[in-house]
Amino acid sequence: MNVGIVGFGYWGKNLVRNFFAFEGCTLQVVCEQNTALHSQLAAQYPSVSITSDFNDLLKHDSIDCIVIATPVSTHYELTKLALQAGKHVLVEKPMTAAFNQAKELTQLAEKEQKVLMVDHTFLYTGAVRYIKQLIKQGGLGKINYIDSTRINLGLFQQDVNVLWDLAAHDLSICAYLLEKRPRSVQAIGVSHTDNAIENIAYLILKYDNNLIAHFNCSWVSPVKIRQMLIGGDKKMIVYNDTEPTEKVKIYDTGYEAKTDEERANLLVDYRTGDIQVPKVPMTEALSLLVQDFADAVKKGKKPDSDAQLGLEVVQILDAAQESIKHNSKVVCLQ
Ligand SMILES: NC(=O)c1ccc[n+]([C@@H]2O[C@H](COP(=O)([O-])OP(=O)(O)OC[C@H]3O[C@@H](n4cnc5c(N)ncnc54)[C@H](O)[C@@H]3O)[C@@H](O)[C@H]2O)c1
C-alpha cells in the first residue's frame, strides 16, 4: 500500500506522522503547496518525496491511496480527481462542504470500487469505543438525549462555519453510537465578524421515540470545553474529552415518572447511585484509523468511518446551514 498525502498543515502533520509510522504502508509523497513547509518535511521525513503539485500524486502510478488534509472547501475537487485517477481516498472531515457533493463522491467511489473513508477521528478513541460497547450491551437503557458542548477560543475558518468545523465531530460520534439518523434538524448561528461565517451556533436534532440531541459550538469561548452528556433511562454518561484519563463517567442516575391516581400530578422518583469511572484505552486514535483504512484497502473490510457515515454527517450539516439561513426553520430529512 503506497500512500501520498496532500496538506502538511495543522492536521496533515499528524496524518503524515501516523502513516509514516504505520508498518503496513509506505508513505511515498507529501504534496504541500506552501513551499515554506518543505524544509520541515524534508528534515523530519528524508525518505519521503515532496511536491507542491497535486497532479504529481495523481500521475504517480505506484501510489494507490491518497490522503487529503486540506481545507474543507477543497475536499470535493481533490477527492473527485483522486477517485477518477483510480486511487483509494481518506479525506479529512467533513467529507465536503455540501450534501450533493458528498453524495456524488460516495457514488463515484462505489462505481470505481475504491475505498472512500472520512477522518472522523473520534470514532477511533478509546472513550467513544467504550461508550459504543456500553450502549450496545444495553448498559444505558433507552437513550433519551445527547447534549454536547464543544467550545473554545478556536481558529476562525475561512471557508466553513463553526458547525462544519466542530459539530462534524459530534455528528459523527452520534451516528456511530446511535446507529440511527435524525428526523429533523434545526439550528441558529451568529457571526461576529464581517465575513458572515457563523462563529457561534446551536444545533438540535430530533430522532424517533423522543430522542433529542443538542450541540453548542463556538470559536469564541474563553475556556475549552469538550463535554458530551448521554442520557439513558438506566444510566447516564458524562464524556469529558479534556480530562487526561478519566474521560468517561457513568452515573447510575435515573428517574421514574408516573401520574397520581387522579392523574392530576406528575410524580417523579429520582435515583442517584454510584459513579463508575472505567479505564479506557489511550491508544492514539489516528493510528487505529490508519489501520482501519489499510484493512479496507487490503482486505475489503467496511471501515467504521466509511463514506456512508461521512455522507450522513454532511447531510445534517447542510440541513443545519439551511435552517440558519431561514431563521431556524425545522428542516426534515428524508
Ligand atoms: N480530524 C480532526 O480532528 C481534525 C482536526 C483539525 C482539522 N481537521 C481537518 O483537516 C483539514 C485541514 O485542516 P488544518 O487545520 O490542517 O488546515 P491548515 O490550513 O493548517 O492546513 C491545510 C494545508 O493544506 C495545504 N493545501 C491546501 N490546498 C492544497 C493543494 N491543493 N495542494 C497542496 N497543499 C494544499 C495548505 O497549504 C496548508 O498547509 C480540514 O478539513 C479540517 O477540517 C481535522
Question: Would you give an account of this structure?
Answer:
With 334 residues, this protein is an alpha/beta fold. The chain folds into 2 domains: 2-121 and 286-301, Rossmann fold (3-Layer(aba) Sandwich), CATH 3.40.50.720; 123-283 and 315-332, Dihydrodipicolinate Reductase, domain 2 (2-Layer Sandwich), CATH 3.30.360. It is 34% helix and 31% strand. It has 9 helices and 15 strands. The chain has helices at 12-21, 38-44, 54-59, 72-84, 99-112, 126-136, 162-178, 285-299, 307-325; strands at 2-6, 26-31, 49-51, 65-68, 88-92, 116-119, 143-153, 184-190, 200-206, 212-218, 220-232, 236-240, 248-259, 266-276, 331-332. A 9-stranded mixed beta sheet has the order 14-13-12-11-7-10-9-8-15. Strand 9 and strand 10 form a beta hairpin. Helix 5 runs antiparallel to helix 9 (307-325). The longest helix has 19 residues, at 307-325. The radius of gyration is 21 Å and the shape is globular. The model has no long low-confidence stretch (mean pLDDT 97). Bound molecules: nicotinamide-adenine-dinucleotide (NAD).
